[in-house]
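Before relying on records like the one below, remember that each one covers exactly one chain. Contacts with other chains, cofactors or solvent are not represented anywhere in the record.
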Amino acid sequence: MANEILTPITLWEGFNDSLPFKETVLKTETIGSAVFNYLYFSGRSVGNKRVRIYGVYAKQKNSKSDTIIILPSVSEGVDVNLVSHFSSLGFNVLTVDLRGKVDGESDFTVYPEEIAYANYENRDRYMDYVDTNARETSWYEWCAVARYAVSYAKSNNPNGKIGVLGLKHGANVAWQLTATDERVSASAFAFGAGWLAYKGVSKFTQEEIELDDERCRFIAGVDAHSYAQLVKVPVLYLGTTNSTEFDPERAVDTLQRVDNQNKSWINFVNSSKDTLDKYCLNDVKFFFQKYLSSKRIKFPSLPKLSLEIDGEDIVYTVEYSTVEDIKSIYVYASSNEIDASVRTWFMPPLESATEGKYVFRRRLHGYVEFEIAYAVVKYANGLALSSKFVFENAEVSSNSKLPNVIFSSSKLVTTFLVDGCNGRKLGNVFTTDKLREYVSGPLGILGVSTKNTIISYAIKEFSANLNDKSFIKFDVYTAINDTITIKLLSKSGFEYLSSVKLNAQDKWQNLTIEFSEFKTEIGMPIKNFSDIYLIAVSSQGGVAVNNFLIL
């Protein structure tokens, strides 16, 4: 029925995922302990045609292994390297293509012409809007593929458990699947967590979206936070604090709707915009080992963070589980920024530590209307868990000025984070490389590496006071002849660049770049300094920088 508001229950009741698979194997190879089949099998029926699902299935020679189903992002294809990673841990692994036809590629899921909008390149309004009902959307077809993936995995191992790993928008599909398919035993989500109808609208803004009939149909039948309340199995959420596409605070709201909060875990990375680190990869491993393989894994409870205003200071108290040996505990805090994607995170210094409780304190600077913070506990076995975000109305005025340091090796505290990742990525999400690496230069002094482009939003804290005579001052070390480029971005969309050619030297070189030297590609200087909100540092071969100051 057109214009019908379908809920997760009414949308999926009666769905038939038991039709014959009509499997076709294109290629077989053995990798480690598993046989990898590159194959097609049939999905749901559309008229007199079937969806033909493309996937890769790595089946362990041990028939008792449980299965992880990987749902890639709806805009990306399958990644055999990610399949190999989890296969090497002893799991059966099945990944299926959701995006459909792509020009220039030969293997992809084939959707009948009647539902051509299931192809990502032909999605039109069918991904972002529900003009009729949720059954006539790209999301419905992508989740239907995922349900048939579960049926296929079960047909190969009827007694095995099923875990689901969803990546980016594939994670939104995973929420729908987990909530409506009782065959799923545990699910991990990377980035996607619903609230797509609220994209660009911060949780803490006063702005409201218009809830017309179309938006109501979308929220009820598509958005993951509408499905979360039906999720009964253990869940793990992984994300970055500064993602442009996936709002971390909204993600926490989705997780709070899950029925069993004692089996709900989070890990946020703030060293990258869009890449998850090796700790996140370890989290997924331990999570599935615990809930699929039933290994005796001790999964600590989430750390709890509380904030207290003490004069011009703010005190952060972290309470954490001690069931595993602790490697490190940090608090990350940000003031006055509503937009999570451009938030600057500071690390308050540790004040005291007792077993099960760490206390941090930092002096607030200028006028602080509100504070947002979270804690991260890293364990010796490679696991990392984050607290939920804590929001505190501070309304404190301080005479203290914010230090103009973007990075200094004296405390190894940096507001730099990585934009993109030049290293190897699994599923275009995870990396095993260090994202924000500290490297040793001459005299044993540490610097932050620019192997990837590193960025900081901290410059916007000083931009109101910048002018032509302001300058950037920093030390740089390079073992090869190189070029370092500094880029400034403005809220108006302008990019200003300044580059310095470097000769290899066995010493730290001191550089000073005046703001009058920054120009656009057509030679236009900065006109509105208060509009600058981001600084980016990159090099051709990789250098180290230290004592990075804005003066």
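The longest strand covers residues 366-379.
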